[in-house]
Automatic annotation (TrEMBL):
Keyword Thylakoid: no
Primary residence: other
Annotated protein name in UniProt: ABC transporter substrate-binding protein
Location relative to the cell: Cell envelope
Residue ranges of domain Fe/B12 periplasmic-binding in the record: 53-320
InterPro entries, sorted: ABC_transptr_periplasmic_BD, Bact_iron-sidero_bind
Superkingdom of source: Bacteria
A GO cellular-component term linked to this record: outer membrane-bounded periplasmic space
Family indicated by similarity: Belongs to the bacterial solute-binding protein 8 family.
Source species of the chain: Mycetocola tolaasinivorans
Alphabetized Pfam families for the sequence: Peripla_BP_2
Keyword Cytoplasm: no
Matching PROSITE patterns: FE_B12_PBP, PROKAR_LIPOPROTEIN
Gene Ontology biological process terms in this record: iron coordination entity transport
Length: 320
């Protein structure tokens, strides 16, 4: 899981990204000289036909590259959050040079890795930052329908790095597993009312993961798990909404199965444990029935989405 709902949904501004370093000189790029045109979020850009040194500048981009079997030459420093990622993900970024951390992009460190292509998403990279990155190397910025549109973001990144075939293969595997699970567990899915909750913005709050976010999209749109009648439907692009504990009874009205994220080691983050321990929550029918399940997998691409499907099947659906 991500460190908090707020971190997961935060859109970085140019000021934050510029705080760490300024005035980096353009670096010489390595790789093939042939170019092609990519429709970036901020306009068409010429990028290498076959990029050899790809730098990832958004939080989820390294994992999207991982799903395409592309090792980045630079990524964010995940030291603060590294235990939230799987062993495979941790191994993937081990030894990769860092170019700042979440909210603090270091342009000089990025330039020092001599990328021939920089990739990221528009939910963290605004146009002013894009221009600074473009002074270092050709920059392809993906933009989906909303922040949770990992399908669209990964498709665009795959196009940028020349891995569309790998993306298509991962997509096909995911769709096959999704359809199998929807068919096999149709009674469990349609026979329950669902909610996926997580940390709130502040202490004493919880959040509902909405269909405009990565997790909510999988739960509601992809698997067809209908949220309970108490869950507000005024969804926005942030992908979640935070509520005070006092609204637990209202929001969870009619919910018969509740899902929430847990850490990779199986432990429950303190903010979520606070929800589980709250008297209002413990009196809910879903809690009384012990139909509250923790899930480890975070979704950024078709590979992690398939892993999430398998975890839901094993942990939740087969137990109902």
């Amino acid at each position: 899981m991500r460190a908090s709902a707020a971190v997961a949904a935060l859109t970085l501004t140019a000021g934050l990204l510029s705080a760490c370093s300024t005035g980096a000189a353009p670096a010489s790029s390595e790789g093939a000289s042939a170019t092609r045109t990519f429709a970036s979020a901020y306009g068409d850009v010429k990028i290498p036909e076959k990029p050899l040194r790809v730098a990832a500048v958004s939080y989820d981009t390294p994992w999207q590259l991982m799903s395409l079997d592309v090792k980045p030459v630079a990524a964010q420093d995940y030291g603060k959050w590294i235990k939230e990622f799987s062993d495979t993900q941790q191994d993937f970024v081990k030894g990769v040079p860092t170019a700042g951390s979440f909210g603090e992009l270091n342009y000089e460190a990025l330039a020092a890795t001599k990328p021939d292509l920089i990739v990221g998403d528009a939910y963290e990279i605004d146009e002013s930052v894009y221009k600074r990155l473009s002074a270092i190397a050709p920059t392809a910025i993906a933009k989906g329908k909303d922040r949770g549109d990992w399908q669209g973001l990964t498709e665009q990144i795959a196009e940028a790095v020349g891995k569309t075939d790998a993306w298509k293969g991962a997509k096909s595997t995911y769709e096959t597993e999704r359809d199998r699970i929807k068919t096999t567990y149709a009674a469990q899915i349609s026979g329950n009312s669902w909610a996926h909750f997580s940390l709130g913005d502040d202490a004493g709050q919880f959040s509902i993961q909405e269909p405009t976010g990565a997790i909510g999209n999988l739960v509601v749109n992809e698997l067809g798990m209908k949220y309970g009648p108490g869950v507000p439907t005024n969804y926005d692009a942030s992908g979640y909404h935070s509520y005070p504990f006092e609204q637990l009874g209202t929001v969870f009205t009619g919910v018969s199965v509740a899902l929430h994220p847990i850490n990779q080691d199986g432990s429950v983050p303190q903010g979520i444990q606070d929800v589980l321990n709250n008297d209002l929550f413990t009196r809910l029918p879903v809690a009384q029935a012990k139909h509250v399940y923790g899930l480890k997998t975070s979704i950024t691409d078709y590979v992690t989405a398939t892993e999430w499907l398998h975890e839901v099947e094993k942990t939740v659906l087969s137990a109902l």
